[in-house]
Amino acid sequence: MERILSQIEKAIAFTGVVFVLVFTILILNYSTLGHNLASQQATAFMQGRLDIPDTPQTRGSDAVAYKGKVYSPFPPLPAILMIPFIMLFGTGASMVVIVIPVLLFTAWAFWRIIVVAGNVSFSKYWLLIAFLFGSSFWPTLVYGQGIWFYSHLLGTAFLTIGLLASLSASPQKGFYAGMAITCAFLCRQLTIGLVPIFLVLF
Tell me, what DSSP letter sits at residue 153? Predict the structure, then answer.
């Protein structure tokens, strides 16, 4: 009986992940990398500039005007990570090409946390579903075309890796967790508020 329930839970978890993928693709497929302010910043970095084009779209994404030029006030890592995707697919490519890999990577890291944690009071598969659908990860994902949500999505991915590193038996786990937290901070500044949690874990 337990084996049957386990198979059912696996099937539900697999179906949930597939649903997330399909729904995300359907929602984000209409938006392109160029719609995201991080893309404007990435293009500027590739051209050796810090300022970005002054357009209604960039102004609408909280860009800042200073001394006749427009800048992105957001941390730089999301733009830096977008550069390879722009080089491969161009700014006209769908946001799906970068959001889906981040989704799969984060889901894998969260699954590894559940496995490494060992004994949990709920099924590991249900915990994964709860993370994908029952937390802010889901709305962040489906609104990933915006610079705010895209950055938050990347920040979540790095924090998840940081948690996984902190639970490992590696003697360098502090270094890896610290690097992950730093990357999360360079995506969303307020993630610095989670540092005390890592201190407790250590």
Answer: H
